[in-house]
Design brief:
Distance between the termini: 41 Å
Strand content: 35-45%
Strand order of the largest sheet: 4-3-2-1-7-6-5
Number of domains: 1
Largest sheet: 7 strands, antiparallel
Shape: elongated
Radius of gyration: 18 Å
CATH architecture: Roll
Structural class: alpha+beta
CATH superfamily: Ubiquitin carboxyl-terminal hydrolase 26/29/37, pleckstrin homology-like domain
Number of helices: 1
CATH topology: PH-domain like
CATH class: Mainly Beta
Length: about 140
């Protein structure tokens, strides 16, 4: 069965005036994990950066995903917080365990809201499956309970 997973394009702007360390990428909400595709562009005057890299994030590691808008719908941002900060260490412009992602499209607010709902659903599903696995693990051990 072929399904299209919800995805959002994003940017992390360069941290200096010369446009170094500009990051562009895509968040994809796959069924089993949140996939963080990103490309590091060395300079803004360079047409293409490196090849896309991928960071696979388990939904249990996602603490929260929130949408921030300024002045209505101008420059919407997605704030992704993780419980374990190590996966985002290599991405420039991220904070410890969090990333502020600027949505690449103007009409992305409605898409971002639907994307956040999907992530919340898949996160709760992952937590429920972990609890079920833990309970069955306790039931299988002799002498427990």
């Amino acid at each position: 069965m072929i399904t299209d997973s919800p995805a959002l394009s994003f940017e992390i702007p360069a941290r200096d005036a010369l446009g170094r360390e500009h990051v562009e990428g895509k968040l994809v909400a796959e069924e089993k994990s949140l996939q963080f595709y990103w490309r590091f562009r060395d300079r803004t005057f360079k047409s293409l950066g490196e090849d896309m890299r991928i960071i696979v994030l388990d939904y249990a590691n996602v603490e929260s995903v929130t949408l921030k808008t300024m002045l209505g719908r101008w420059k919407p941002r997605l704030l992704v917080k993780l419980t374990d900060p190590r996966p985002l260490d290599a991405v420039p412009g991220t904070q410890v365990g969090a990333a502020t992602l600027w949505l690449a499209r103007r009409g992305g607010v409605a898409e971002a809201k639907a994307f956040i709902k999907m992530i919340d659903y898949r996160k709760s599903d992952a937590v429920a499956n972990a609890r079920i696995a833990r309970m069955s693990e306790l039931d299988d051990k002799p002498g427990m309970l």
